[in-house]
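Chains adopt folds. We examine one example:
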Amino acid sequence: MFGYVSVNPQGLSEAERKRFRGFYCGLCHVLRERYGDIGRLTLSHDMTFLSLLLAALYEPEEKTGEERCALHPLKPHPVVLQAAAEYAADMNIILAYYKCMDDAQDEGSLRGRAGRVALQKAFEQAAERWPTQSGTVQASLERLAALERQESNDLDALARLAGDMLGACFPWKQDAFAPYLRDMGAALGRFVYLMDAYEDYDADEKRGRFNPLRMLHSTDDYEARMEEILTMEMAQCTQAFSLLPIEQDLALINNVLYSGVWGRYARLTEKRKEKQA
Protein backbone atom coordinates (compact mmCIF):
# COMPACT_ATOMS: atom_id res chain seq x y z
CA MET A 1 0.00 0.00 0.00
CA PHE A 2 2.79 2.38 0.89
CA GLY A 3 5.73 3.61 -1.14
CA TYR A 4 4.36 4.62 -4.53
CA VAL A 5 3.21 8.18 -3.85
CA SER A 6 6.21 10.46 -3.60
CA VAL A 7 8.04 13.24 -5.39
CA ASN A 8 10.43 13.04 -8.31
CA PRO A 9 13.33 14.97 -6.73
CA GLN A 10 14.96 15.61 -10.10
CA GLY A 11 11.94 17.69 -11.13
CA LEU A 12 12.06 19.98 -8.09
CA SER A 13 13.99 23.08 -7.15
CA GLU A 14 16.05 23.05 -3.97
CA ALA A 15 13.38 25.13 -2.24
CA GLU A 16 10.66 22.68 -3.28
CA ARG A 17 12.69 19.71 -2.06
CA LYS A 18 13.10 21.42 1.32
CA ARG A 19 9.40 22.21 1.39
CA PHE A 20 8.44 18.56 0.87
CA ARG A 21 11.04 17.47 3.42
CA GLY A 22 9.47 19.93 5.83
CA PHE A 23 6.07 18.25 5.44
CA TYR A 24 7.66 14.81 5.77
CA CYS A 25 9.48 15.76 8.98
CA GLY A 26 6.39 17.60 10.18
CA LEU A 27 4.32 14.45 9.84
CA CYS A 28 7.04 12.51 11.65
CA HIS A 29 6.95 15.09 14.44
CA VAL A 30 3.17 14.78 14.80
CA LEU A 31 3.28 10.97 14.75
CA ARG A 32 5.83 11.03 17.56
CA GLU A 33 3.86 13.57 19.59
CA ARG A 34 0.55 11.73 19.21
CA TYR A 35 1.69 8.11 19.25
CA GLY A 36 5.28 7.92 20.44
CA ASP A 37 8.15 6.24 18.62
CA ILE A 38 5.94 3.41 17.33
CA GLY A 39 3.89 5.99 15.46
CA ARG A 40 6.97 7.47 13.86
CA LEU A 41 7.92 4.06 12.48
CA THR A 42 4.80 4.10 10.28
CA LEU A 43 5.82 7.34 8.55
CA SER A 44 5.21 7.29 4.79
CA HIS A 45 5.55 9.56 1.78
CA ASP A 46 1.98 8.63 0.85
CA MET A 47 0.49 10.35 3.90
CA THR A 48 3.04 13.16 3.60
CA PHE A 49 1.40 13.84 0.25
CA LEU A 50 -2.03 13.83 1.88
CA SER A 51 -0.81 16.34 4.47
CA LEU A 52 0.61 18.53 1.70
CA LEU A 53 -2.57 18.28 -0.38
CA LEU A 54 -4.94 19.14 2.46
CA ALA A 55 -2.74 21.99 3.67
CA ALA A 56 -2.73 23.42 0.14
CA LEU A 57 -6.51 23.18 -0.07
CA TYR A 58 -7.48 24.52 3.36
CA GLU A 59 -4.38 26.64 4.09
CA PRO A 60 -4.27 26.18 7.88
CA GLU A 61 -1.80 28.24 9.88
CA GLU A 62 1.74 26.91 9.56
CA LYS A 63 4.67 26.89 11.93
CA THR A 64 7.98 26.42 10.13
CA GLY A 65 11.45 25.95 11.46
CA GLU A 66 14.29 23.48 11.84
CA GLU A 67 14.90 20.75 14.39
CA ARG A 68 17.08 17.77 15.14
CA CYS A 69 15.73 14.36 16.06
CA ALA A 70 17.02 10.96 17.18
CA LEU A 71 17.17 9.77 13.58
CA HIS A 72 19.07 12.86 12.39
CA PRO A 73 20.84 14.24 15.46
CA LEU A 74 23.70 16.10 13.78
CA LYS A 75 22.09 18.20 11.07
CA PRO A 76 18.92 20.24 11.60
CA HIS A 77 16.19 19.69 9.04
CA PRO A 78 13.17 21.77 7.98
CA VAL A 79 9.83 21.13 9.68
CA VAL A 80 6.39 22.34 8.65
CA LEU A 81 3.71 21.93 11.33
CA GLN A 82 0.02 22.49 10.54
CA ALA A 83 -3.35 20.97 11.41
CA ALA A 84 -3.67 18.79 8.31
CA ALA A 85 -0.62 16.83 9.49
CA GLU A 86 -2.61 15.69 12.52
CA TYR A 87 -5.31 14.23 10.30
CA ALA A 88 -2.72 12.65 7.97
CA ALA A 89 -0.98 11.12 11.01
CA ASP A 90 -4.23 9.48 12.12
CA MET A 91 -4.84 8.10 8.62
CA ASN A 92 -1.24 6.87 8.54
CA ILE A 93 -1.83 4.89 11.74
CA ILE A 94 -5.14 3.43 10.52
CA LEU A 95 -3.70 2.31 7.18
CA ALA A 96 -0.50 0.95 8.76
CA TYR A 97 -2.49 -1.05 11.30
CA TYR A 98 -4.71 -2.65 8.68
CA LYS A 99 -1.70 -3.38 6.48
CA CYS A 100 -0.10 -5.26 9.39
CA MET A 101 -3.35 -7.12 9.99
CA ASP A 102 -3.62 -8.04 6.31
CA ASP A 103 -0.01 -9.23 6.20
CA ALA A 104 -0.54 -11.33 9.34
CA GLN A 105 -3.68 -12.98 7.97
CA ASP A 106 -2.63 -13.56 4.38
CA GLU A 107 1.04 -14.43 4.72
CA GLY A 108 1.34 -15.38 8.37
CA SER A 109 3.90 -12.60 8.62
CA LEU A 110 5.61 -12.39 12.00
CA ARG A 111 6.34 -8.75 11.28
CA GLY A 112 2.66 -8.18 10.50
CA ARG A 113 1.53 -9.79 13.75
CA ALA A 114 4.08 -7.86 15.78
CA GLY A 115 3.15 -4.62 14.04
CA ARG A 116 -0.55 -5.13 14.70
CA VAL A 117 0.08 -5.67 18.41
CA ALA A 118 2.45 -2.71 18.64
CA LEU A 119 0.00 -0.39 16.87
CA GLN A 120 -3.14 -1.55 18.69
CA LYS A 121 -3.37 1.33 21.16
CA ALA A 122 -2.49 3.96 18.57
CA PHE A 123 -5.01 2.49 16.15
CA GLU A 124 -7.78 2.58 18.74
CA GLN A 125 -7.09 6.26 19.38
CA ALA A 126 -7.11 7.13 15.67
CA ALA A 127 -10.18 5.01 14.94
CA GLU A 128 -12.08 6.67 17.78
CA ARG A 129 -11.40 10.08 16.23
CA TRP A 130 -12.33 8.95 12.71
CA PRO A 131 -14.78 6.02 12.92
CA THR A 132 -16.17 6.49 9.40
CA GLN A 133 -12.76 6.35 7.75
CA SER A 134 -11.63 3.43 9.90
CA GLY A 135 -14.85 1.52 9.29
CA THR A 136 -14.67 1.99 5.53
CA VAL A 137 -11.04 0.87 5.41
CA GLN A 138 -11.87 -2.22 7.48
CA ALA A 139 -14.97 -3.19 5.45
CA SER A 140 -13.20 -2.67 2.12
CA LEU A 141 -10.15 -4.63 3.22
CA GLU A 142 -12.28 -7.53 4.45
CA ARG A 143 -14.16 -7.71 1.14
CA LEU A 144 -10.92 -7.39 -0.80
CA ALA A 145 -9.28 -10.16 1.25
CA ALA A 146 -12.30 -12.40 0.64
CA LEU A 147 -12.07 -11.91 -3.13
CA GLU A 148 -8.34 -12.55 -3.08
CA ARG A 149 -8.82 -15.77 -1.10
CA GLN A 150 -11.29 -16.85 -3.80
CA GLU A 151 -8.62 -15.91 -6.39
CA SER A 152 -11.15 -13.72 -8.15
CA ASN A 153 -10.50 -12.72 -11.76
CA ASP A 154 -12.60 -9.57 -11.39
CA LEU A 155 -9.76 -7.05 -11.56
CA ASP A 156 -12.14 -4.08 -11.55
CA ALA A 157 -13.80 -5.22 -8.31
CA LEU A 158 -10.46 -5.86 -6.62
CA ALA A 159 -9.01 -2.49 -7.61
CA ARG A 160 -12.23 -0.69 -6.71
CA LEU A 161 -12.14 -2.01 -3.14
CA ALA A 162 -8.52 -0.94 -2.80
CA GLY A 163 -9.53 2.47 -4.08
CA ASP A 164 -12.36 2.69 -1.56
CA MET A 165 -9.82 2.31 1.26
CA LEU A 166 -7.62 5.21 0.25
CA GLY A 167 -10.58 7.24 -0.99
CA ALA A 168 -12.11 7.12 2.48
CA CYS A 169 -8.95 8.64 3.96
CA PHE A 170 -8.66 11.70 1.71
CA PRO A 171 -11.63 13.84 2.88
CA TRP A 172 -10.62 15.71 6.04
CA LYS A 173 -13.85 17.67 6.38
CA GLN A 174 -17.38 16.89 5.25
CA ASP A 175 -17.75 19.86 2.92
CA ALA A 176 -18.06 20.66 -0.78
CA PHE A 177 -14.49 19.47 -1.43
CA ALA A 178 -15.00 16.01 0.09
CA PRO A 179 -16.38 14.28 -3.06
CA TYR A 180 -13.43 15.46 -5.16
CA LEU A 181 -10.94 14.40 -2.52
CA ARG A 182 -12.63 11.01 -2.24
CA ASP A 183 -12.56 10.50 -6.01
CA MET A 184 -8.94 11.56 -6.13
CA GLY A 185 -7.94 9.20 -3.33
CA ALA A 186 -9.93 6.32 -4.80
CA ALA A 187 -8.24 6.62 -8.19
CA LEU A 188 -4.85 6.87 -6.51
CA GLY A 189 -5.70 3.82 -4.40
CA ARG A 190 -6.58 1.79 -7.49
CA PHE A 191 -3.33 2.89 -9.11
CA VAL A 192 -1.32 1.85 -6.04
CA TYR A 193 -3.05 -1.55 -5.84
CA LEU A 194 -2.38 -2.27 -9.52
CA MET A 195 1.20 -1.03 -9.29
CA ASP A 196 1.81 -3.24 -6.27
CA ALA A 197 0.45 -6.25 -8.15
CA TYR A 198 2.56 -5.35 -11.21
CA GLU A 199 5.72 -5.09 -9.13
CA ASP A 200 5.05 -8.30 -7.18
CA TYR A 201 3.94 -10.46 -10.10
CA ASP A 202 7.13 -12.47 -10.62
CA ALA A 203 7.62 -13.05 -6.89
CA ASP A 204 3.99 -14.11 -6.47
CA GLU A 205 4.29 -16.58 -9.33
CA LYS A 206 7.47 -18.05 -7.91
CA ARG A 207 5.87 -18.53 -4.49
CA GLY A 208 2.51 -19.72 -5.77
CA ARG A 209 0.64 -16.72 -4.37
CA PHE A 210 -2.45 -15.11 -5.85
CA ASN A 211 -1.88 -12.05 -8.00
CA PRO A 212 -4.83 -10.08 -9.42
CA LEU A 213 -3.03 -9.58 -12.75
CA ARG A 214 -2.84 -13.31 -13.47
CA MET A 215 -5.40 -13.30 -16.29
CA LEU A 216 -4.20 -10.04 -17.80
CA HIS A 217 -0.60 -11.25 -17.71
CA SER A 218 -1.47 -14.13 -20.05
CA THR A 219 -2.40 -11.72 -22.88
CA ASP A 220 0.05 -10.82 -25.62
CA ASP A 221 -0.27 -7.09 -25.00
CA TYR A 222 0.07 -7.27 -21.22
CA GLU A 223 2.65 -4.49 -20.85
CA ALA A 224 0.76 -2.10 -23.12
CA ARG A 225 -2.53 -2.77 -21.35
CA MET A 226 -0.97 -2.27 -17.92
CA GLU A 227 0.41 1.09 -18.98
CA GLU A 228 -2.99 2.04 -20.39
CA ILE A 229 -4.84 1.02 -17.20
CA LEU A 230 -2.39 2.81 -14.91
CA THR A 231 -2.53 5.92 -17.07
CA MET A 232 -6.33 5.87 -16.97
CA GLU A 233 -6.37 5.68 -13.17
CA MET A 234 -3.99 8.61 -12.81
CA ALA A 235 -6.00 10.57 -15.38
CA GLN A 236 -9.06 10.13 -13.17
CA CYS A 237 -7.02 11.17 -10.14
CA THR A 238 -5.70 14.34 -11.78
CA GLN A 239 -9.15 15.15 -13.17
CA ALA A 240 -10.60 15.14 -9.64
CA PHE A 241 -7.63 17.18 -8.42
CA SER A 242 -8.17 19.79 -11.13
CA LEU A 243 -11.60 20.56 -9.65
CA LEU A 244 -10.07 21.67 -6.35
CA PRO A 245 -9.17 25.38 -5.96
CA ILE A 246 -5.51 24.85 -5.09
CA GLU A 247 -2.70 27.31 -5.71
CA GLN A 248 -0.41 26.73 -2.71
CA ASP A 249 2.39 24.22 -3.41
CA LEU A 250 0.85 23.49 -6.81
CA ALA A 251 4.20 22.65 -8.42
CA LEU A 252 4.98 20.14 -5.64
CA ILE A 253 1.61 18.43 -5.92
CA ASN A 254 1.82 18.29 -9.72
CA ASN A 255 5.29 16.79 -9.41
CA VAL A 256 3.86 13.91 -7.35
CA LEU A 257 0.82 13.30 -9.54
CA TYR A 258 2.43 13.64 -12.97
CA SER A 259 5.92 12.34 -12.26
CA GLY A 260 6.59 11.00 -8.76
CA VAL A 261 3.98 8.24 -8.78
CA TRP A 262 5.52 6.85 -11.97
CA GLY A 263 9.01 6.48 -10.51
CA ARG A 264 8.72 2.83 -9.49
CA TYR A 265 6.95 1.93 -12.74
CA ALA A 266 9.71 3.50 -14.81
CA ARG A 267 12.40 1.62 -12.88
CA LEU A 268 10.52 -1.68 -13.18
CA THR A 269 9.93 -1.43 -16.91
CA GLU A 270 13.55 -0.45 -17.47
CA LYS A 271 14.78 -3.48 -15.52
CA ARG A 272 12.48 -5.78 -17.49
CA LYS A 273 13.70 -4.40 -20.78
CA GLU A 274 17.30 -4.94 -19.68
CA LYS A 275 16.47 -8.48 -18.60
CA GLN A 276 14.84 -9.29 -21.92
CA ALA A 277 17.79 -7.79 -23.80
Remarks:
- The chain has a mean pLDDT of 92.
- The CA atoms of residues 100 and 210 lie 18 Å apart.
